[in-house]
Every structure is written in C-alpha cells, then in structure tokens.
Amino acid sequence: DVKVTQSSRYLVKRTGEKVFLECVQDMDHENMFWYRQDPGLGLRLIYFSYDVKMKEKGDIPEGYSVSREKKERFSLILESASTNQTSMYLCASIWGPGHNQPQHFGDGTRLSIL
Amino acid sequence: AQSVAQPEDQVNVAEGNPLTVKCTYSVSGNPYLFWYVQYPNRGLQFLLKYITGDNLVKGSYGFEAEFNKSQTSFHLKKPSALVSDSALYFCAVRGGKIIFGKGTRLHILP
Predict the structure, then answer these.
(1) How many domains does chain B have?
(2) How far apart are CA B93 and CA A74, in angstroms?
(3) Which residue of A lies nearest to B37 if distances are taken between CA atoms?
(4) Are the C-beta atoms of residues B19 and B81 closer than 8 Å to each other?
(5) Which of A81, B3, B19, B62 is a plausible cystine mate for B13, CB 3.0–4.6 Å?
(6) Which of A100, A109, A110 to mutate to test the interface with B (most CBs of B within 10 A)?
(7) Where residue A98 falls among pLDDT bands split at 50, 70, 90?
(8) Residues B44-59: pLDDT tens digits?
C-alpha cells in the first residue's frame, strides 16, 4: 500500500522564518503535489512536480518554493513565513500524468505562523 | 474551464437513513471523477472513482456514486448512514489537471 509521509503533524513558527515542510512517498510515484487546505476554500494547489528537479506552479505559488532532488521526496519551502500562511498543508502523490488512479495523501502538517 | 461544485457546505442525516452528497462538474472531454473522505486531523482518503463504464460506481465503506452525464453530476450516496460516516467529503475531477470541490461536511445524527 502506498504511504505518503509528512515529517511534521504540527509546526509552530514565527513571522519571517524560513520554513521547510517535507514529504516522502514510497511507491516510486512520478507526480507529487503540495496543497493548502483552508475552511470554506477546499484544497488549493501550490506547486506540483512531475519528475526529479521539475516543478510547475499551481494556483497559489506566491510566497512558496519547492525542491525535488530525489524522486521520493518533495519539499515545500516558505521563504519568509507570514501569518496568512497559517494553514493545513497536504502532500499527495500519483503514479504519472494522465493516469486514472487516485492521489495518495499524507496526513497533513498543521502550520501556525505567529 | 474546468470546475467542480459541491453546493452544500453541510449535510445532516439521521443514522440509518440514506444519504446523498452532491457534486457537479464542468470539464472538456471525458472526465475522471473521484470522491475522497477526510477525518479530523488526517489527510484525504480515496473512496471511489468513475472512469468509464457503469454509471453506478461502488466504493469503500458501503459508499456508491452515480455518474450522470446529462446533468454533469456525480453524487455520493449510501443506503444507510452510520455515525462513523461523519466527516468531510471532497469531490474531484481530473481533466487537464485535478480540481477539488470545496468540501461538504457530513453530520450523521445518532
């Protein structure tokens, strides 16, 4: 069974800090995604990656960057954290483009920026 | 443009009654449609999908969904609700990219 692991369940950081959220999947999936989830807004795509060192902006990339140096790991970086980035962050993976299989999600990181 | 709508923010159902969570979509071409469930402080879990074939799709935990092409809908159903079905439910469509609805919170009342 596919496992997507997010390194932290809860994280508290201060405004202006550089924040790293880590995600690892164990099924050799090509595509990985970062979403943020806010009440009433559903899931919004921040960035996705379809291969190592490849990345594409999603719908709300401002204030974020990503890194994918290895196929199994996809990192989300908040360059200078701000209070409006307080949210639930979800990582997901899927085998490849155009594939009709569902995404597999991690349990999320609830990030608070003080 | 591709879109998904879940018209109800919350649905309340008495335990043992049938439940329906609504989803409508807009996509060019043939859609891939998915339902996910999210329990508190957890990620999304896959329930079921429609790719092609029978319009009635069966999934996990006794859930099923009916694909209606003319109404562009993909409503989630269950014949008899359980209290443990209380959760947040997301519909998603995959055309050129994956789009999620805003979610519907399902409350099953004992």
Answers:
(1) 1
(2) 23
(3) A105
(4) yes
(5) B19
(6) A100
(7) low
(8) 999 999 998 889 999 9
Contact yes or no for B60/B48 (Cβ under 8 A): yes
DSSP summary character for residue A47: E
Put simply, the answer to whether A90 touches B46 (Cβ < 8 Å) is no
Closest CA to A43 of B43, B76, B77, B82: B43
Chain B residues whose beta carbon lies within 8 Å of the beta carbon of residue A43:
44, 90, 100
Q: What is the pLDDT of residue B62?
A: 95
**Contacts of B53 by beta carbon, 8 Å cutoff, 6+ apart:** none
Structure tokens at A93: 């993976």
At A1, the amino acid letter reads D
Q: How many domains does chain A have?
A: 1
